[in-house]
Amino acid sequence: MKNKFDIDGNFWINKNEKAFIGKGRVELLKNIQIYGSISKAAKQMKMSYKAAWDSVDIMNKLSQEPLVTKVTGGVGGGGTVITTYAKEIINAYDELKNLHETYLENMSNLFDSLVIDLKNEKPVFSKLEGKITNIISNNQNSEIEIILNSKQKLVTIVNEEFLQKRELKIDKFVKLLIETNSIVITKDKSSNSARNSLEGVVEEINDDGISTYLSINCGESDFINAKITNSSYKTLSIKKQDKVFAFFKAYNINII
Question: Which of 198, 139, 142, 211 lies closest to 170 in space, CA to CA?
């Protein structure tokens, strides 16, 4: 299966802090070897002759031995060839490129494992809506109290600039986002000291053997999604229709 995300990146080999050789210049050398001409190699790559010649000139000047040289006379009338040293450079670059591609593939797989696959219905956020009932300003920040449709209260913290620019005020309805992996689930309301808690009933359980995703109905169309470890899921022995408490900090709430 193809990764959702691919980490892309070319690499250059530098000398004396100057670009010596990279993917494009290796291709140019290979084409010079095939066509025996800088102009034909440039045409094959759809680049100007000047750009190709400049690249060759830079490589020759930075290299300890010439990479491209001219051959005059002879049966074929002469031409341009790459040297044995150039072939060694090409082989060394290709080996490094293969290692680099393997590294990028491994990094892509790692990145994939760290993100949630939305197509498998594993949401990154919980989406809620409520009405502002109180605003308490304190220095540069303000605490905002919000009542949800289920009549449960949440508290979030925003800075004064955000408060003013979003024109937040009492009785205004706002939409909220809460990151799924910032939520702690317990069966005991008093077992966590986080600022916010929502009470609800487990409606859906999706366990992939590593993480467990819970969909919790808090009443009146208020649903919250939580991601917990598989070990926590087993320790809590959570089943559908169990009553649970979702805890999260004030800073975990984003007003959108």
Answer: 142
| Cα separation, 183 vs 23, whole angstroms | 46
Query: Checking DSSP bridges between strand 18-21 and strand 223-229, what pairing results, if any?
Result: unpaired
Contact yes or no for 253/156 (Cβ under 8 A): yes
The CATH number covering residue 38 comes to 1.10.10.10
How far is 196 from 164, CA to CA, in rounded Å? 24
> Against a cut of 0.90, is the pTM above it?
no
Answer yes or no: do 20 and 65 share one domain: yes
pLDDT tens digits for range 126-166: 889 999 999 998 878 899 999 999 999 999 999 988 898 88
Cα–Cα distance between 155 and 128 in angstroms, integer?
Answer: 13
Report, in angstroms and rounded to the nearest whole number, the Rg of the chain calculated over CA atoms.
31
Residues 131 and 104 in one domain: no
Pairwise CA distance, residues 198 & 218, whole Å: 7
In a domain, 146, yes or no: yes
Q: Last residue of some domain: 114, 149, 181? A: 114
Burial class of 228 by CB neighbour count within 10 A (0 to 12, 13 to 18, 19+) = buried
Identify whether residues 93 and 66 lie together within a single domain. Answer: yes
Tens-place pLDDT, residues 5-15: 778 888 899 99
Q: Please give the residue range of the domain that contains residue 149.
A: 122-255
| CA-closest candidate to residue 107, choices 192, 32, 5 | 5
Distance between CA 70 and CA 76 in Å, rounded?
13
- CB-CB contact of 248 with 178 (8 Å): yes
Of 56, 86, 114, the residue at which a domain comes to its end is 114
C-alpha span between 107 and 236 (Å, rounded): 34
